[in-house]
Amino acid sequence: MIRFVVVAMAVVTSGIAFADGPGDPTAVKSEDGKYFDKDGDPTFKVAPDGTVDWYTYSGYRRYHSDCHVCHGPDGEGSTYAPALKNSVKNMNYGDFLAVVASGRKNVGTAQDNVMPAFGDNPNVACYMDDLYIYLRARSVDAVGRVRPAKHEDKPPAAQQAEDSCMGKR
Amino acid sequence: MRKLLAATCLGAMATFAVSAANANDALDKMSQDPKGWVMPAGDYANTRYSKLNQITAANVGKLQVAWTFSTGVLRGHEGGPLIVGNMMYVHTPFPNKVYALDLNDENKIVWKYEPKQDPNVIPVMCCDTVNRGVAYGDGMIFLHQADTTLVALDAKTGKVAWQAKNGDPSKGSTGTSAPLVIKDKVLIGISGGEFGVQCHVTAYDMKTGKQAWRAFSEGPDDQIMFDPEKTMALGKPVGKDSSLKTWQGDQWKIGGGCTWGWMSYDPALNMVYYGSGNPSTWNPKQRPGDNKWSMTIFARDADTGMAKWVYQMTPHDEWDYDGVNEMILSDQQIGGAARKLLTHFDRNGLGYTLDRVSGELLVADKFDPKVNWTSGVDMDKNSPTYGRPKVLDQYSTDKQGEDHNNKGICPAALGTKDEQPAAYSPDTQLFYVPTNHVCMDYEPFKVSYTAGQPYVGATLSMYPPPGETHMGNFIAWDGKTGKIVWSNKEQFSVWSGALATAGGVVFYGTLEGYLKAVDAKTGKELYKFKTPSGIIGNVTTYENGGRQYVAVLSGVGGWAGIGLAAGLTDPTAGLGAVGGYAALSNYTALGGTLTVFALPQQ
Question: Which pTM was predicted?
């Protein structure tokens, strides 16, 4: 109920319309350990034994460092910020990047929901794909509410991207 | 000329000091009249005890709702109203409204204050946009707004008398805590431990809003207002650079140690007591050293701000166990001798009793038996580790290192108790403590600092202690011996400040929204009523027209609103294990309401 109220408020007052959802999340190809759907957007991969791809696991960790203090554990929402596992159902990859980078404001009569811009925060900005992939997996319950038990090794490409993104600042 | 000026100044100061002392006496005296509730904790000692005894253990079962008031705000409502004479002052979370209600005139709104604040401060507030209340002094109401503006309002009209800016929200500073008026000054802390703020307590002149002193939690001796020879820690002078020596390089500048809890004051000693919060970041590997004086109990001279003694409870924090919880002052006998005591229930799960004159450590014991990160505090005065908690390697997130998921640490980061203040009854000589009963997995990793952005550096997941399904307890604690006297299980963390009364009744609220009354001696539940929303506010009592009232703010939120709204998971039981860990959202929804109770009229 709490979640419903917050989400409903967001829709009524946001003024930001998201036309499309993210589409079929099935991974059709992989590149250096990162998986992509048929539209070329990043997505998750969960093996039959529960092993998740590196980015889903990394997204879990980054989410619970920088996002969960407002959006609650496991993308489940809190008393004052929406459940992102639901939000990403109505946002495509581009929408997601834009909101995380620039923030958003939903100011109403009873309460003000404000998300900051994370574009300048390397702890978030360097892991946008990781966060998107994790939340996309949560949105279709491909991973559950707990820490993924097994994950693929960290790909060298992920390490290189991290070093250059975090290091240049 | 200079001499003349100095003489005039001195004369003016002397005059001022006299009137200040009078103002202080007046407030101190007002706080002793049980009909009102003139400071956030009821009295300077932070006992949250009232001498009112119309509502007793025998008749509390007949309690009824007398009146209610909607605040018009939906976020988490911490703190509680003040009652000064026939006026009640009710505060709200962001946008930080204040309502003045006339209790003699059908609780009519006499005035309302609503500041204009930049909503960009909202996401800088870790854990909801809470505010823990206003303070009263000398005909004025003092409010610490979210944007760190300290504002003085005329208590009769709500007109702004002065404003002072206490911090910079664009760098991560915010205002959540309640001020405390001492003599001619208003003291206030600051929040921002998750944003790398160098936190402080600041005293402002009550008449003008001019800064009188500011004492940081970490930094050079002049900034932290320490005298290396006279400021004591566990019976010894702290020495030069006691803080700087415990940080790597300039890390103290983004060191946290925030001061968002409660303050207490001993008028006879003229000392103010408060605690400091976690060192920033949550990744202990990134900040080697004891990180003094984060996680510390401070005793300062209320006039000058100089530190008399300090005690660091959790050196080099590895779990986010902020030390900001209230310091409750009591006078009790220990070992046959009368002692002036300070009792503190820390996030780290230990209940401390110290001599508040000297800072001597008397008791340090677990107030939840599930606390497991430490085997206890070294109480041997001759030991090199005297006063330090012994950390178990298995639960040391520093020893286990970055990118290691440390499992089963109790308590969780929200602590065995958070800001929700305990009460102390001199009748039973027991402390009544609202507690969390939650454990966690904690994984620290490397983060980089950006001004005004979260500086966290750890993931955590929380759940009830293995094998248990309740997430809170309401306990009675003997501070002299460090023992739990009785303990009531609660399904959710108890995130509401307690109230003890001379009627032998103790009150507290629950996250589902119940106001509960229990027997002070036994803990037996005597009354409960479900208010419109979950309670994270503190219970207050007052008398008006010969009738005793009990008041509490409902409005679920705060950190409890994050962790518990969706329910917790039990990683040991795998997926789908809800049941006892059911979501708080199944029990209550948002809403800011004051509910006031009284016995039925004859």
Answer: 0.91
